[in-house]
User: Fold Homoserine kinase from Prosthecochloris aestuarii.
Amino acid sequence: MKTVTGFASATIGNVACGFDVLGFAIKEPGDEVILTLHEESSSESPVSIKTIHGDGGALPRDPKKNTSSFVVLKFLEYLRNHKGIDFQGHIDLELKKNLPLSSGMGSSAASAAAALIAANELLGGPCTKMELVHFAIEGERVACGSAHADNAAPAMLGNFILIRSYNPLDLITIPPPDQLYCTLAHPHIELRTAYARSVLPRSISLKTATEQWGNVGALISGLLTSDYELIGRALVDVIAEPKRATLIPGFYQVKEAALGAGALGCSIAGSGPSIFAFSSSAATAEKAGTAMRNAFLDIDEHLEADIWVSPVCREGARIL
Ligand SMILES: Nc1ncnc2c1ncn2[C@@H]1O[C@H](COP(=O)(O)OP(=O)(O)O)[C@@H](O)[C@H]1O
Ligand SMILES: N[C@@H](CCOP(=O)(O)O)C(=O)O
Assistant:
């Protein structure tokens, strides 16, 4: 038997104005997937979920419904159809779910990326990370009904990832500025990605579109030139945030607190309920975290929130 452990960290999709086309990874926390290879096939499915820790029993144990096992099945299918590798053994999967579910932290994508990096290592590394990312994106379809890449791609590849095109998939890696820090505040409530997508408008005005893509261009420019003031100025979302803010108790108070503590900008992490802020120093990022946590506590709901401060992860999914 051979055992391999894969790790993939939390990601923040959208990054305010880049709905479905921009995301980045932070260093911690993340999901772990432990795969054990058995040379002999022992069941109908080549992948079995043996244990899931930390999900409170919420996640599917059916290998075709959990993102971690589903993407390994897609990976094995690809090997058979495109690499001439017809896997005849069996893989036992153990998932350590360190990321909160429906949190806005890309938890399903982290499970998928961790499983894929481990499966690829287990079978001798037949694929590149750029090949693996296709399966991680498909895992999002299982998780929330849509194959958005802004969590899956940075979970696998690290850095900021801009999705220029979904068909064909065209991903652009943007390394982070050296002094960029992310503060992530996760209130202890759940907001399902699929529901948070259902509240979005199906069409927008030309004025709104123009404002949004102007900020996307400015944000990319700020990231590439390490222009921290421009990054903050461009962190404006006029499409998703106005609709989703109402789903997050205290959103505007938390945003004001982060900016008041010196953060460059602040918006919803992915589809929420987590909220992220950028700062140009670790000290300011820590101050913003304290302010965001206190703001969540001060609202009528008195929400507890977990806070993480992290630079952007440049490595992506890795073997532990
Ligand atoms: N292995 C998995 N890890 C996390 N979520 C999963 C997994 N498999 C299926 N899901 C489902 O994915 C949906 C999206 O949740 P999740 O990805 O945790 O949200 P977010 O991306 O906002 O953190 C949830 O309904 C969750 O139950
Ligand atoms: N672009 C997606 C991002 C979802 O991120 P998640 O971490 O909440 O799953 C969206 O905004 O729906």
The chain is about 40% helix and 25% strand. The first helix runs from residue 67 to 82. Residues 58-59, 66-68, 101-108, 111, 143-144, 151, 192-193, 270-271 surround adenosine-5'-diphosphate (ligand 1) (CB under 6 Å).
